[in-house]
């Protein structure tokens, strides 16, 4: 029997269609709009812009709020709708398809001048624009978004992903230098850069920066949260945002599924409110582990260069810093320490092959088993191989030492750091791993094992988690980690006692970090 009361919102359905385009569910769009002063929706003069409209959900929900808010001032419904759509609500679509979706959501017609449009315009686009832009190539990259010419210079018949709003030096041009009170939306997050696998370059920060150039009174966006502590090419953006005291509200979700059902976004997502003229601390609302924690604090704590997600992390980190100990980051070496990249090419019988050099320009012969006394074991992704020691040109003098190697790709939802291991004398590693060893001294076997035990503690991985939110655990992910006396056994209880952690802090670490074998 059909339930006649079931009337799903089509934009909810669209939001769950695909991971390729992250569409915004109506409920989430309304949570973002709730951040704004609600008097904005009672003024016939407030102007709203979504400069990266996909389904049109933000514009549609803004129209609904204005319709209610202006009812007493403009009792005639059609005159009210005409005023709202012609004078208050504006959008720029990201593709031709989303321009039709957005107009259908807002005007009830994909053509704003069509006979089914709820308010008749003189043009097909109305106030929701779209134009097929091209990238501007300079040295193989787009000067506006950094897109790879090799990937996106593919003719006008294919989608260029040259988004209108950021592919211009003058974002005011689209609506005749109009002054917008509110800019709001959910921009595209990244573009494929032509690298291995799903390699991509973030672009969402470009939309934030472009929106700020329009000097709105309020700016609110949903973006990936990885910018808070890391992210490729985001250092300058992060510094600018964390030092901007006009950022007054931040909702931080460690699990993106709480906002976008079924969509995986490494490091989670966030949405924020930026208010012109606000100066002071930020209301930080952290959503994690089925808990919501409110705090009012600066985004950049004194003595730190990155955002710290949890209050408990701030407290523990300050206790660690008080001892002024040397840091493990001084022992971390990039994965090409021994001169190998990650690429492996096996012959058909998988008995021999070659491993790529660090510069990516050549290959070194290798075997799957030790072939002669001069062979050196190389730890690679998924196992090991063997190469002649004479072919190892970088740091070959450290091959015959005990080392600890850390995967460069971590596991934020579980162990945090992947699975570190001992690299015994007579072995080295490819760029799959970072190399951990003292700059000058040697590690004994006991010290190497105690260092490995330290890495497996919840305390250690808790400090790493404070610095990184993504799978890529670069060397700076270990900048909060103090060195220990590795001649002694190390465990969590001893570390908790050493740094004077409270029971609440210990419980937070124990609940947040999974055990590790």
Distinctive features:
517 residues; alpha/beta; Rossmann fold; Adenine-n6-DNA-methyltransferase TaqI, Chain A, domain 2; 2 domains; nine-stranded mixed sheet; four-stranded antiparallel sheet; 13 helices; 23 strands; globular; disordered N terminus
Summarize the structure.
The chain is an alpha/beta fold and 517 residues long. It is 23% helix and 21% strand.
How would you portray this structure in words?
The chain has 517 residues and is an alpha/beta fold. It has 13 helices and 23 strands. Strands 3-2-1-6-9-11-10-12-13 form a nine-stranded mixed beta sheet, sandwiched between helices. The longest helix is centred in the first third of the chain and has 13 residues, at 57-69. The radius of gyration is 27 Å and the shape is globular. The model is unreliable at 1-20 (pLDDT under 50).
- What is the top-level CATH class of the largest domain? Alpha Beta
Low-pLDDT sequence parts:
1-20
Please count the beta strands (DSSP E, at least 2 residues each): 23
> What oligomeric state do the depicted chains represent?
single chain
Rg measurement, Å: 27 Å
Give, in spatial order, the strands making up the sheet with the most strands: 3-2-1-6-9-11-10-12-13
* N-C termini distance: 52 Å
Strand content of the residues, in percent? 15-25%
- Mean pLDDT metric: 89
Structural class: alpha/beta
Sketch the major β-sheet.
Answer: 9 strands, mixed
CATH structural architecture of the largest domain: 3-Layer(aba) Sandwich
Return the domain count: 2
Coarse shape:
globular
- CATH topology tier name of the largest domain: Rossmann fold
Helix content class: 10-25%
């Amino acid at each position: 029997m059909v339930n006649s009361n079931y009337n799903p919102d089509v934009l909810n359905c669209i939001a769950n269609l695909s991971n390729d385009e992250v569409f915004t569910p109506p409920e989430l769009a309304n949570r973002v709009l709730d951040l704004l002063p609600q008097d904005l929706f009672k003024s016939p003069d407030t102007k709203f812009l979504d400069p990266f409209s996909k389904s049109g959900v933000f514009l549609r929900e803004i129209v609904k709020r204005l319709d209610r808010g202006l009812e007493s001032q403009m009792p005639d419904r059609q005159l009210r709708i005409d005023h709202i759509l012609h004078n208050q609500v504006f959008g720029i679509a990201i593709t031709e398809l989303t321009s039709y979706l957005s107009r259908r959501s807002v005007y009830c017609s994909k053509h704003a001048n069509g006979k089914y449009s709820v308010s008749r315009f003189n043009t097909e686009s109305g106030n929701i624009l779209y134009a097929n832009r091209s990238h501007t190539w300079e040295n193989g990259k787009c000067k506006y978004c950094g897109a790879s010419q090799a990937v996106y210079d593919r003719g006008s018949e294919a989608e260029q992903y040259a988004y209108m709003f950021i592919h211009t030096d003058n974002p005011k041009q689209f609506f005749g230098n109009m002054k917008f009170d509110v800019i709001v939306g959910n921009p595209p997050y990244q573009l494929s850069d032509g690298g291995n696998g799903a390699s991509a370059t973030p672009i969402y920060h470009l939309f934030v920066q472009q929106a700020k150039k329009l000097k709105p009174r309020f700016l609110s966006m949903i973006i990936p949260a990885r910018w808070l502590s890391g992210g490729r090419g985001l250092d300058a953006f992060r510094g600018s945002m964390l030092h901007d005291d006009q950022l007054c509200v931040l909702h931080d979700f460690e699990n993106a599924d709480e906002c976008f059902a079924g969509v995986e976004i490494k490091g989670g997502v966030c949405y924020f409110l930026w208010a012109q003229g606000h100066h002071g601390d930020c209301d930080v609302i952290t959503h994690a582990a089925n808990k919501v924690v409110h705090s009012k604090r600066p985004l950049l704590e004194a003595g730190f260069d990155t955002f710290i997600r949890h209050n408990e992390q701030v407290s523990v980190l300050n206790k660690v810093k008080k001892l002024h100990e040397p840091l493990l980051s001084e022992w971390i070496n990039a994965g090409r320490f021994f001169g190998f990249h990650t690429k492996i090419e096996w012959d058909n019988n998988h008995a021999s092959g070659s491993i790529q050099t660090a510069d990516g320009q050549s290959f070194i012969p290798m075997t799957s088993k030790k072939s002669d006394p001069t062979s050196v074991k190389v730890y690679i992704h998924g196992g090991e191989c063997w190469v002649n020691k004479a072919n190892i040109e970088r740091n070959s003098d450290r091959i015959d030492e005990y080392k600890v190697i850390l995967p460069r790709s971590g596991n934020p939802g579980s162990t945090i750091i992947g699975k570190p291991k001992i690299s015994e004398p007579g072995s080295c590693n490819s760029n799959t791993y970072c190399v951990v060893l003292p700059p000058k001294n040697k590690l004994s076997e006991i010290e190497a094992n105690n260092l490995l035990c330290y890495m497996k503690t919840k305390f250690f991985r808790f400090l790493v988690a404070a610095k990184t939110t993504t799978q890529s655990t670069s060397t700076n992910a270990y900048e909060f980690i103090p060195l220990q006396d590795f001649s002694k056994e190390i465990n969590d209880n001893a570390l908790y006692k050493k740094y004077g952690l409270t029971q609440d802090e210990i419980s937070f670490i124990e609940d947040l970090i999974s055990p590790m074998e």
